[in-house]
Task: inverse folding
């Protein structure tokens, strides 16, 4: 069964939607855990790392926290799968370097890349909104098993440049940034709370429910449900009105 949406832009979540969460937790998380301390030692003066360090110290209310304490905090957040902006920033830096060195190659479900290519060819704009940093998103799409896919994407959004994924205000900010009316935007995610927030901001929504994903048993609430991108048909309106 195919569900049809009249939309000019599709905004994609990554984990559980385009890609397997298990790849992130089993491959990328250990990779970053092993490299956090070296990153903090060697790159503390780099502006993104410096900003992340300041954010972590603020969140801990420990302005003089040393690097060992910060590494411990990062690993605790990692263990809890916390969607904390400075954690995602530092993960993104580590992962981007790993992708660039050829040590990492991203994962996509087999239905995803053909679908997004077809949508783009039909004139549909494509954006990403993930809790992972924009640096991580860019590296993810640049180093896929099918090569560099970044040319398919119009914009990247994360919790730093858009806001929390369960807040309607974040989706309002994204709509404003890309210049598309909310009712012409389709958000795809595996998490019902994120879909609720997008719907509250006036967006179209579809829940991607893939067997084996962590949120599979929770369902997608009252949102249209698909198990693969092949079950989605998008008809661009050709207008932002």
Result:
């Amino acid at each position: 069964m195919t569900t049809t949406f009249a939309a000019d832009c599709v905004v994609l979540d990554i984990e559980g939607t385009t890609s397997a969460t298990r790849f992130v937790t089993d491959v990328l998380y250990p990779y970053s855990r092993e490299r956090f301390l070296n990153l903090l030692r060697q790159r503390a003066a780099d502006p993104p790392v410096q900003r992340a360090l300041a954010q972590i110290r603020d969140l801990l209310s420990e302005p003089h926290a040393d690097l060992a304490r910060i590494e411990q905090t990062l690993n605790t957040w990692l263990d809890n799968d916390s969607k904390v902006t400075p954690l995602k920033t530092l993960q993104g830096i580590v992962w981007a370097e790993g992708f660039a060195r050829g040590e990492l190659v991203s994962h996509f479900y087999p239905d995803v890349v053909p679908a997004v290519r077809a949508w783009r060819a039909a004139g549909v704009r494509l954006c990403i909104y993930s809790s992972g940093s924009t640096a991580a998103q860019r590296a993810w799409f640049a180093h896929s098993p099918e090569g560099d896919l970044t040319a398919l994407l119009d914009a990247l959004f994360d919790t730093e440049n858009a806001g929390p994924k369960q807040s309607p205000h974040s989706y309002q900010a994204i709509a404003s940034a890309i210049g598309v009316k909310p009712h012409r935007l389709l958000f795809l995610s595996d998490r019902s709370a994120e879909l609720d927030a997008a719907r509250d901001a006036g967006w179209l929504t579809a829940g991607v429910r893939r067997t084996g994903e962590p949120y599979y048993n929770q369902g997608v609430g009252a949102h249209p449900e698909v198990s693969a991108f092949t079950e989605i048909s998008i008809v661009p309106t050709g207008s932002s009105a």
